[in-house]
Amino acid sequence: MTLLNDITTLEDIKLLVDTFYSKVQKDKFIGPIFNEKIGNHWTEHLEKMYRFWQTILLEEHTYSGSPFPPHKQLPVAKEHFERWMEIFTETTDSLFAGPLAEEAKLRAKNMAEMFNYKIEYFRNTEKN
Q1: Mean pLDDT on 10-36
Q2: How is 18-57 classified by DSSP, letter by letter?
Q3: Is the dihedral of CA 48, 50, 52, 54 positive or negative?
Q4: Alpha-carbon Rg of the chain, whole angstroms?
Q5: pTM for this one?
Q6: Spatial separation of the C-alpha atoms in residues 91 and 103, rounded to whole Å
């Protein structure tokens, strides 16, 4: 059995992000949503995700912006976020072990729940 290391460097974050989004792109359930929204801008999206997770996990402040607005109009529901979280957890657990890996999963879970809640909220207020 190979012992996994924790997330400690930008290279670790790039490995996590690249592996995760590679799986997302191929996923039959959430892949089409991501591929349609991002189109041929995957390189830019991945760069932004590197900076986002570098800021959150390594406390190296390279990301600025609001992550929610680009997601506000996505055609997603709770089950899409659950699938996203399932892939994120599987990817993280297959690559890393340690406090920052656990922190990444917790942050991803909290973000997925918040995004789902806010998307539902905006949908419901737009109907009224």
Answers
A1: 97
A2: HHHHHHHHH-TTTHHHHHHHHTT-HHHHHHHHHHHHHHHH
A3: negative
A4: 15
A5: 0.90
A6: 14
For residue 69, count CB atoms less than 10 angstroms from its CB and return exposed for 0-12, middle for 13-18, buried for 19 or more. Answer: exposed
pLDDT, tens digit, for every residue of 31-78?
A: 999 999 999 999 999 999 999 999 999 999 888 877 776 777 777 889
Rounded to whole angstroms, the Cα distance separating 46 from 40 reads 12
Residue-wise pLDDT for 77-113, tens only, equals 899 999 999 999 999 999 999 999 999 999 999 999 9
What domains can be seen in the chain, in order of their start residue? 10-127 (1.10.490.10)
Q: Which long-range contacts (CB under 8 A, 24 or more apart) does 109-114 make?
A: 109/85, 111/67, 112/81, 112/82, 112/84, 112/85, 113/81, 114/68
How many residues does the structure list for the chain?
A: 128
Q: How far is CA 54 from the centre of its chain?
A: 13
pLDDT of residue 98: 97
